[in-house]
C-alpha cells in the first residue's frame, strides 16, 4: 500500500513537470527566440515591493535594466521606471499544443521592462522561457526514444522468446553486439554517419531515432526471459490448442505478461535518454539553435568565461535533476512493487 | 586454458561484429568528407576524383570493408583524411591517455566504494550507511555532464587544479619529474569526475551483495561462536559477495568509458573523446570507426578480465564451464 502511494505521488510530480513543458507557451512570459541585444547576460530580475517614494506595493515591481556605461554585462536598475508584475497578460503569440493560437501568458510586465526569472543569455533571450520550451524538446525526446526502444525491444524479445531456434540466436547475438559497446560511443558512432547540418525539427527526429535504436537490447533480453517462462503457462497452451494464431497468442496472452518489465524499463530508460539528448545537443550533435533544448542551452557553459561568470546559465542543468530524481525513484518503487531487488 | 581460448575467440568475434556494424552505418550515411572539399572552387573535379580513387571511396561496401580489414591487419586501421596519416598512430597516443584516465579512475573508485559499501552493509542504518546512502542518491541523480562542469567550475574558480590538456605550457622541456607532476595535476580533475560518476552504482552493488552475504545463516552461526567481527566480514562474507562484484567490474567499465568520453571533451583531456568528436564533425570516417573499435576493445578486454577473475575465484564456475 505504501509503495502504491509512493508511485502515485511520484507520478503526480512528474506529471506536473510534463504539464509545465506541454503548456510552455502559457507559463513562459516571452517567446523562446525573442532577443534583446541591449541586455546580454542580464542577471535574474529583482522583485521590489517598495518603490522610490517608499510606498509599499502588494504587487512586486520589476525595474528596467540599464547597462552601466563602459562595461559589458554589468547592469543597474532604473528605479524610476518600475512596472508591476501582472498575471494573465497578453503577450507574444504562441501555439498551444501546436494547434490553438493564443496570446495569454501566466505572468509578465509591461514593456520596456522585462521580467527575467532566470536572467538572459548571450542574445538577451529569456532563459526561463527557453528552459520551458527546451523541456518540450528534451522531455519529449526522452519519451519518444523510450517508446521506440521498448517497441523494438518488445517486438524482438517476444519473437525471440516465443519462436526460439535460429530467430532467438540471431536476435540475442545482435543484442550482445549492442550491449558490448559503451553506449555513448555507440550513440556517437551512429550519429557520426548521419547528416550534421539540418534544421532543428529534422535533428530532433534524428536524435530520437538514433537514441531509440541503440537501446533495444537490454529490454529485449529481459522480455525474452519473461516470455521463455511465460509461454509455458497452461492458458497459453490452451489458446494455441484452440487454434489461436501466433500473432493472437503473442498479443493477447504473452504481451500482457511483460507489462511490468516494460514499465520498469521505461522508468529507467526515460531519464537516461533525456540525458542522451542533452549530451548530444551539448556537444553540437543534437538539436541546434534557434530551437532551445536543455543540451544546447548548456553548451554556452563550454566557454570558460560564461561558466565562471554567469551562474544562471546553469538553470537547464539544474532542471534535469528533479526530472532525473523523479524517474529514478519511480523505477525503484516499481521494482520494489514487482518484488525485484533494488540496486 | 580451453576456457580462455574460447572466451578470446568469442571476444574477437564480437569485435568483428562491431566493425561490421560500423561499416553498415557508414553505408547508410549520406555525405562524405569530400563534400566540403567539393565546395572549394580551387580544387578541380579531377583532383577530387583522384583523391576519391586513392581512398577507394567509389567502391562498393564489401570491397571497402575488405580494404579496411587489410589495413587493420597491417596495423594502420584505415587512413585519416583530415590528418593525412594512418589512423593507428593517431589512435594510439589518444587511447593511451584514455586508458590512463579510466584505469586510474576505476582503481580509485573501487578503493573508495569497497570500504564504503562494506561499512554500510556491516552497520546497516548506522551513520556511515545513512551518509553513504544520501551521498549515493545525490550523485545518482546528478548527470555526469553536470558533475564534469561542476568540477571544471571549481578548478577555474579556485585555481587549485590546472584546466585543459595534459601538460602545462611551462612544464614542457623540464625534467621528467616535473612533467610527471604536471600530468598528475591535470589528471586529477577528470579522475575526480569519473570517480564521482561511478561511485554510487559501485557502492550500492557492494552494499547489496555484502548485505545478502551477511544475512546468511552461517554468518549468524559464526557470530554466535564469537569469531571476531572483522574476521567474519572480511574472511567469510567478502569472498561470498565477491562473485557478483567481479562481474560488476567488467560491466561498470562500459559506463565508465562513456562517462570518460564526455569528461574528456569537457575538461579537454587529450583522450579518445575529443578525437572522436572532431572526427565526427569533420566526417573523418576511419578515425570514427577506429575510435569506436578502440573503445569496444577496452570494454571487451575489461569483461574478459572480469570473466577470468571470476573463473579463478569461483570453483563452481570452473566446474560448470568445463562440462
What is the CA-CA span between the terminal residues of chain A? 21 Å
The main β sheet of chain B shows up as: 2 strands, antiparallel
Number of strands of chain A: 5
Give the low-confidence spans of chain B: none
Strand content of chain A: 5-15%
Q: What distance lies between the first and last C-alpha atoms of chain B, to the nearest angstrom?
A: 14 Å
Q: What is the CATH architecture annotation of the largest domain in chain A? A: Orthogonal Bundle
Count of DSSP H/I helices of chain B:
13
Order of helices and strands of chain B: HHHHEEHHHHHHHHH
CATH superfamily of the largest domain in chain A: MetI-like
CATH architecture of the domain at 92-281 in chain B: Orthogonal Bundle
* Proportion in helices of chain B: over 70%
Spatial extent as radius of gyration of chain A: 25 Å
Shape of chain B: globular
Overall, the morphology of chain A is elongated
How is this structure best described in words?
The complex is a heterodimer of chains A (343) and B (323). Chain A is of the alpha+beta class. Chain A has two domains: 45-115, no CATH class; 131-338, MetI-like fold (Orthogonal Bundle). Helix content of chain A is 56%, strand content 13%. Chain A contains 13 helices and five strands. Chain A has helices spanning 2-22, 24-27, 127-163, 165-179, 183-192, 200-214, 217-230, 234-241, 246-254, 259-282, 294-298, 304-309, 315-337; strands at residues 48-50, 56-67, 75-84, 86-96, 100-108. A three-stranded antiparallel β-sheet of chain A has the order 1-2-3, with no helix packed on it. A two-stranded antiparallel sheet of chain A has the order 4-5. In chain A, a hairpin with a 7-residue loop joins strand 2 (56-67) and strand 3. In chain A, helix 8 packs antiparallel against helix 9 (246-254). The longest helix of chain A is centred in the middle third of the chain and has 37 residues, at 127-163. Chain A is elongated, with a radius of gyration of 25 Å. The mean pLDDT of chain A is 84. Chain B is an all-alpha fold. Chain B has a domain at 92-281: MetI-like fold. Helix content of chain B is 79%, strand content 1%. Chain B has 13 helices and two strands; from the N terminus they run ααααββααααααααα. Chain B has helices spanning 2-28, 33-38, 45-55, 61-73, 87-122, 127-141, 144-158, 176-214, 217-224, 229-266, 272-281, 285-313, 315-322, and strands at residues 79-80, 85-86. In chain B, strands 1-2 form a two-stranded antiparallel sheet. In chain B, a hairpin with a 4-residue loop joins strand 1 (79-80) and strand 2. In chain B, helix 7 (144-158) packs across helix 10, helix 10 runs antiparallel to helix 12 (285-313) and helix 11 (272-281) packs antiparallel against helix 12 (285-313). Chain B starts with a helix and ends with a helix. The model of chain B has no long low-confidence stretch (mean pLDDT 81). At the A-B interface, helix 4, helix 5, helix 10, helix 12 and helix 13 of A face helix 1, helix 7, helix 8, helix 10 and helix 11 of B.
